[in-house]
Give the backbone structure.
Amino acid sequence: MGVPCVRVPREAGEETRQRLAEANLVDDGYDITVIDGQLHVPVTDPTAVPSDLTVVESDPPVRESQTMPADGLDFEPSYERIGDVAIVDEDDDERARAIADAIMDSDLPVRAVLNRASKIKGEQRVRDWEVLAGEGTAVTHREYGCTFDLDLAEVYFSPRLATERHRVAEQVSEGEQAFDMFAGVGPFVIPFAKRGATCVGTDINETAIEYLRVNAEQNGVADRVTGICGDVREVASEYEDWADRVVMNLPHSADDFLDTAVRLAGDDCVVHFYDIQHEDDLFGPGERAIRAAAEGAYDVTVETRHTVRSYAPKEHNVVLDVRLTR
């Protein structure tokens, strides 16, 4: 009898493994293997695997003894990984350092452990970090065939949005013109450009734009990516009626920028509008705001209403994919 495994392309392997690990679904008793170019990740409960992932039966080898962080503790620690850095979120200093020591003593390929030392703050959406082990806050993150250099202390970045970014990128066609209004280090525009789109990304964080340009170069798409440091409302006049696709990933205040998104939109444009809303009305406020900003100039069609992830008790991070047709 086979072992249930999630089958994914190799380039999506680490992001998928992290996603399954967060749900405590990875079966550590077996090795992750490659079969016919596809990665097979053993899982403990195939019925709990998210519906967008494919579950198959496979025959992975039984894992040889491997030291994991939990082996050095009397509890199962919670952590996530970005590249070769592990991140914890602990208020208790003693517990945080115990977890860091266990991670560094384990067989995980980790060079540093960081603890979140503040909430995301300021217009540039960065946070403070405590380095518990190793050195530095700079990382190299890989997802879906793209590589991103970044410094966690200087820019905003969430590896948990990898699946959502990939969902949007798969909609992009060669020859499109795409505008990311809050681009960060380029996790939307670079995969868009790899699919043949011409992309513009703006951000008020100068360091993020510097990384975006570096990342465009190392991913081989610098000729199709323009990074601009500045407030998108002041940049928009140069790109009026230009965009076939607009990304608005600033969920707490994207509605303040809808007039600008409408200025950027061409005759037929898809807007990806991210929002944080209460479960009682997840999509209504965003849809009403978009219609108020665009109707009159455009026909407005909501093509997708999608919950990205839980944000807080009874609140969710959601996205509306909205087509504007002049």
Observations:
- The mean pLDDT is 93.
